[in-house]
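Bit of a strange request maybe. I'm writing a small parser for structure token strings and I need a real example to test against, not something I typed by hand. Could someone generate the tokens for this chain?
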Amino acid sequence: MEERTTVTEPQDLPVIPHWIGGREHPSAGERTAPVFDPALGTETKRVFLASTQDIESAIASAQKAFPAWRDLSMAKRQQILFRIRELLNERKGELAEIITSEHGKVVSDALGEISRGLEVVELATGFPHLIKGEHSENVSSGVDVHSLKAPLGVVGIISPFNFPAMVPLWFLPVAIAAGNTVVLKPSEKDPSAANWLAALFTEAGLPDGVFNVLHGDKEAVDGLLEHPEVKAISFVGSTPIARYIYETAAKNGKRVQALGGAKNHMLVLPDADLDLTADAAVNAGFGSAGERCMAISVIVAVEPVADALIAKIQERVATLKIGDGRRNCDMGPLVTRQHRDKVASYIETAEADGAKVVIDGRNVQVDGAPEGFWLGPTLIDDVPVTSKVYQDEIFGPVLAVVRVRSYEEGLELINNGAFGNGTAIFTNDGGAARRFQNEVEVGMIGINVPIPVPVAYYSFGGFKDSIFGDTKAYGAQGFNFYTREKAVTSRWLDPSHGGLNLGFPQN
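Reply from user aminoacidic:
Good idea to test on real output. This should exercise your parser:
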């Protein structure tokens, strides 16, 4: 949603259309935005930015499809979801290549992203159990009460650039399984994955209009937030935008789950296995070039472990291959030149604030085009908690080390932070780990696990400025978000006569 100068001419590059009503849908307007290959540093295509007419068309398509989709039997909806699962699993390599070409993450990382999205599709195939109502018989003489979980209608999903497949799949399968229709607004930085998913869902038998893709910028976002026919909004992104999404959508009477930013800490106790901890710090700090809300960005080292841990991290970083994600590298580029420059500026800030730059990613040697948006793994020691390097969500491969004297000091540091998304503790002391999970004010906690993203049948979400709204993503909370309860009270007379039917009951 950042401001940009848009060019109306495609300059002979392919232009990515919207997906509305089960097919590609060129924009009614002329605004476009560039889409880059981050490893090459070149613009490879453009994407349409939605006009008011495009927004209306996408929502109208979803609205038109809703009654028939809502009334389709659960058995038939379930068959479509099983087919989606099979097709996505068969072709995930193709989708991974698309993600790498527009996001920059290495192909193996893209495949991992898709696999985590598949978990939610698999959860959604069991939706009949998750949207069952309840029944109470004879609450008064001859009176029964039962509840129904009904879909909301048209729902909007606004997803970020860092997981162009996984985040839409956190919401989309649950929303459609519950009987809703969807308009997805993906990031304009890497939009092709959304269209690929839409085509695959259509091939799997999803009726036209149930899943629509609307490309765009703030105009498209505001169109979804303000339109009276959009009943709910799901969002993942930065905290300032999550707050804006929540406030604007709620003001317009919508149900909202808006997942914001993070500053995730790893608390390392003196008894921790430092080899395991160093592996975890490198994996969680530099995987996907640090462009994920569950990345570890601060190591809170309880002395005297910091020096030994830093040495082990240096050894491991020295073995990493940075470069084009299609060349069997360990870490790829950042998503845009502008973002790379912003992340790199924090290294200068750290030096100005008196921190020690142990590994400087600005000097990285890469296996890729020199014009790519490169920044290597960066490790900064003795970061003051007053520094923006400690306070801000940097969203890049910059790992800060803060030294503390005790468990209590480390816990207080974490709990005083503005965010509460994810955290981890590394220790061999079960009592300390149990105490930590009870005392830390964070929504997702890892014990010797650096990235504690829950499996699909638990829900994803944090505390404090990491979430706006009352409902987390996927799991049981996801189905609660996309349904509303009806309570039905009924009284019936006794039957005066019956009938015979020896046939076996059919679904």
